Amino acid sequence: MSDLPALLVVLPILGSLVSLLAGIRWGRSGWYVAAATLSVQVAGAVAFAADGLSGAPGSYAVGDFTIPYGIELLVDGLSASMVVLVAVVALGVLAYARRAGPRSNRFYSTYLLLVTGLTGMSITGDAFNMYVFLEITGLTAYALVASGEGGRSAVAGLKYLLVGTFGAAIYLLGVGYAYISTGTLNMADLSTELAAVGYGSPLVRAAFAFVVVGLFVKVAMFPLHTWQPDAYAGAPDSVSALIASLVSTVSAYALVRIVLTVFTPEFLDAVAFARPLLAATAAVSIVVGSGLAVSQTNIKRMLAYSSVSQFGLVVAALSVTNATALVGLAVHLVGHAVMKGGLFLAAGLVATGVGGRSVADYDGLGSRMPVAAAGFGTLALGMVGVPPAIGFFGKWYIVVGTLEAGAWGLAIVILLSTLLTLAYFARLLERMFFREAPAGTGSAADADAAVADGGDGRDAGDVGDTLADRGVSLGMVAAVLAAALLAVGLGAAVPAYESALAPTVEVLLS
């Protein structure tokens, strides 16, 4: 196998260093360095996915050191999905950030280091290196959240730091217990050695509990979600979109990888508390997250609580652990990242264009910013699970998987969450398309379309200053539309993706 897996981790580190050094001489060069780096990253990720999705799962030994002493990188359908997702979403958010900001070279250097951490988490086959990349991801995410202007971002970043560090420490403690039990950190080796030690061992059971709870913090499962609403609401719009779409998504992938590769489905069957822990956390997160989202008036906080519910679906699929649920889990991870990232970008676009961040500010948005409203509406319906968007297929597979496993309670909870998701998005759709714009705002029916065409929107009507004047750019509009189109287009690709993912699912369940 080529050195491509290792290069995908190294490349954004090099780009980060170049961006930082270039800032000494050229203060606004960071975006261009990041764009070039991520463009190459996307090409490399696609090549990596061609290997991961086209055959049996494999691995890459860094430096050709033998396992278990060397560091292994995993090459399979699930890791390939995450690597491509990280690269594509990071590049899309970067297009939005060129105008929306922040714009310093230090910001883009940190941005690329976050991509490094996320990529490393996606492909590592070593439990300790998962912690290393988890910390790289966490530290850079804390810095990006705090990069906004004013004290609100700093406070949100500090809270994220404190809670996130606690979660990483709990995870590391669990890895330490597993290492004491087995003497190895390689995931494949750990699964063999843990079985040899015996699933009844207190150390093995403690390792599972600590690892899972630590990653619950990172995924933001209820009641360990308290960092998320403040972090999402307090961060700059581009950062909110990036961490909402990728950080919790890749952390959820890490949870799936550790549970299925290290502890294996046999552990879940043998240990009485394992599946109930996952299922109960999933059910509570799904219901409470949706309920809290319904009660919010701030758009970004509503979307944050929505994520608590949506990742509950992932843990629900993990708790039943059959082939149908795991396909749904993978589809939902990809779909949620695209749709939720797009929704945060759309919320930022609306805030820039009309200066509103609350539900009430969306009155008449369909006439004031029709392109933004169309993108937001498409993504919202996808999150509800309206076909043909990918959101429908992820939920469908998970519900069918729970029914196949006889988990009727979980299936009912998921269907209930869909109604609650419809409730908090329907009120926005009603305001956007069936209410008049507030008095005095005028009509900007063609203003954002003019921006999308590359103009400044000055002939779009008497709306005071135009959207371009307010800071809306072609890149911002294009990023939102791309997310909406991708959410619909990916739905059509689900059958082919299921077929390509089958070898990976078979290995994870074996």
UniProtKB/TrEMBL annotation:
Residues annotated as domain NADH:quinone oxidoreductase/Mrp antiporter transmembrane: 126-421
Gene Ontology CC annotation, any one: plasma membrane
Compartment(s) of residence: Cell membrane
Its membrane topology: Multi-pass membrane protein
Keywords, alphabetical: Cell membrane, Membrane, Transmembrane, Transmembrane helix
Superkingdom of origin organism: Archaea
The protein's name: Monovalent cation/H+ antiporter subunit D family protein
InterPro entries hit by this protein: CPA3_Na-H_Antiporter_D (IPR050586), ND/Mrp_TM (IPR001750)
Chief localization: membrane
Keyword Translocase in annotation: no
Coiled coil: none
Transmembrane segments: 6-24, 31-50, 78-96, 108-124, 130-148, 160-180, 206-227, 239-260, 272-293, 313-335, 341-359, 371-393, 405-426, 474-497
